[in-house]
Design brief:
This protein has about 270 residues and is of the alpha/beta class. The chain has a single domain (about 15-270), classed as L-arginine/glycine Amidinotransferase, Chain A. It has helices at about 40-55, 100-110, 145-155, 195-205, 210-215, 235-245, 255-260; strands spanning about 15, 60-65, 80-85, 85-90, 115, 130, 135-140, 160-165, 175-180, 185, 210, 225, 230, 250, 270. The strands form 5 sheets. A 3-stranded mixed beta sheet has the order 2-1-15, covered by helices on one side. It has a 3-stranded mixed beta sheet with strand order 3-4-5, sandwiched between helices. The protein has a 3-stranded mixed beta sheet with strand order 6-7-8, sandwiched between helices. Strand 9 (about 175-180) and strand 10 form a beta hairpin. The longest helix has 17 residues, at about 40-55. The chain is globular. It starts with 12 loop residues before the first strand and ends with a strand. The structure holds arginine. Arginine (ARG) binds next to loops.
Length: about 270
């Protein structure tokens, strides 16, 4: 039996948004039921425990001011993509979320970022962009467009691998795939078209393949620092698979936010210096 490699965490910088205005006011993905009640106090407690966990792991967490009338703003991952200190703003597919994009750009401007692009084409930030050492993996089919992929490639000067999502429940790449470390990923194959599955198999022959039960509880909406993998606590088989590979899975409960169609990763935008 081979032993799992030693994994090393590196300190990360995250941007989060308090769920002060979170509610399920409209339905723009199959996880949402418009008007479904949300326990605001519990939502905040769950969100705070995620933030506190990041801080306890030694990561830096900045917060962007939540705006009234933007219930999905808690899903901060969608607000921008930041690589090498360069900021690609978002452009939302649905008008309900459109005003989140300029709020994120303002945050970056006041934080002193100078290489900022206001996008021409639809992209929902890290919802559809996942950054590995060698590539930017990009989802399309539901939100981000192929033109949005091209725009990201030109702006970041990194090869973008365009992947087609096949199932509306996995409407963003970050509910179907997560980067664990370097060029190591985990994903749920059934969320992708056959051609895109073959692309993933070719690029990542050693990927951790995730089963349906874990994908269905949003187990892939996870955040890794290279060692610690924060994921929904209900993704139990996945947690065991991660342990086998030498990672340290940490399960969290974000059940209230799941009503909006998001979990750990959706709440967490990574700022890459
Ligand atoms: N209700 C939000 C939407 O449909 C959820 C976004 C979740 N975020 C994510 N990164 N997948 O846009």
């Amino acid at each position: 039996m081979t032993t799992a490699p030693e994994r090393t965490a590196t300190p990360r910088h995250y941007l989060m948004c308090r769920p002060d205005h979170f509610e399920v006011a409209y339905a723009i993905n199959p996880w949402m039921t418009a008007g479904k009640p949300v326990d605001s106090e519990l939502t905040l407690l769950q969100w705070e425990s995620l933030r506190d966990l990041y801080l306890a792991l030694g990561h830096r967490v900045d917060v962007i001011e939540p705006l009234p009338g933007l219930p999905d703003m808690v899903f901060a991952a969608n607000g921008a993509t930041v690589i090498d200190g360069r900021v690609l703003g978002a452009r939302f597919r649905h008008t309900e979320r459109a005003d989140e994009a300029p709020a994120h750009l303002d945050w970056y401007r006041s934080a002193g970022y100078r290489s900022i692009r206001v996008p021409v084409y639809v992209n929902e930030g890290e919802g559809d962009f996942a950054v590995t050492d060698s590539w930017i993996l990009a989802g399309r089919g539901f939100r981000c467009t192929p033109e949005g992929h091209q725009e990201a490639q030109e702006f970041f000067g990194r090869p973008v691998i365009s992947l087609e999502l096949a199932d509306p429940r996995y409407y963003h790449l970050d509910v179907a795939l997560a980067v664990l470390d370097g060029d190591e990923v985990m994903y749920y194959p059934e969320a992708f078209t056959p051609g895109s599955r073959r692309v993933l198999a070719r690029l990542f022959p050693d990927a951790l393949l995730v089963g349906r039960a874990d994908a269905e509880v949003m187990g892939l909406n996870a955040v890794s620092d290279g060692r610690n993998v924060i994921l929904p606590e209900t993704a139990r088989t996945l947690a065991a698979q991660l342990t086998e590979r030498g990672y340290h899975p940490i399960g969290v409960d974000l059940s209230e936010l799941l009503k909006g169609g998001g979990s750990v990763k959706c709440c967490t935008q990574e700022i890459r210096a």
